[in-house]
């Protein structure tokens, strides 16, 4: 049997499941960024405009990222499942950033696992007829395996960058990652 540039149905289902877990991590906190920024600027009143602008850019980038993940889920035949996390109005900024750092690392891990599934679940065409059928497939109907792998690699790298941004934000508020306020 000849291999084709597609992912098996079982592989797609597993990837969609992981991507939906990733979208929970991505999107759950995104909707809370206005509250985080409000707390930074109006309650804590201790952070610079640079810090606040960085938090706003991070929120927008995370929203963009969740949109990319949702589109990939749809391309794989799934349905994105959004779930918003709630945070208490007066939760301290350190706790928010530590939680966000955990979500970024979780998303990176999920996207890596999804990429490995895509790499290890290549569909096979049965005989010449199956190979010919795969050539004429509508590319919008079934995303190619190589395209999924490439998108997942980019998502992984983005998450590494997101985690570094959160670590930088923790440093900016004079708290080392993994340590609590005194």
Detailed description of the structure:
It is a single chain. The chain is mainly alpha-helical and 182 residues long. It has one domain (2-172): Ferritin, core subunit, four-helix bundle (Ferritin, Up-down Bundle), CATH 1.20.1260.10. Helices cover 69% and strands 5% of the residues. The protein contains 6 helices and 2 strands. A two-stranded antiparallel ribbon has the order 1-2. α2 packs antiparallel against α3 (49-75), α3 runs antiparallel to α6 (145-172) and α4 (93-120) runs antiparallel to α6 (145-172). It is elongated, with a radius of gyration of 20 Å.
Précis, in short:
This protein is mainly α.
CATH topology: Ferritin
Query: In percent terms, what proportion of residues is strand?
Result: 5-15%
What gross morphology would you assign?
elongated
Mean pLDDT: 80
Reported CATH architecture: Up-down Bundle
Order of helices and strands: EHHHHEHH
Q: End-to-end span in angstroms?
A: 63 Å
Number of domains in the coordinates? Answer: 1
Rg on CA atoms, Å: 20 Å
Q: Sheet with the most strands?
A: 2 strands, antiparallel
Number of discrete helical segments = 6
Can you tell me the CATH superfamily?
Ferritin, core subunit, four-helix bundle
Helix content: 55-70%
Secondary-structure-based class equals mainly alpha
* CATH class bucket: Mainly Alpha
Strand line-up across the major sheet: 1-2
Number of strands: 2
Low-confidence stretches: none
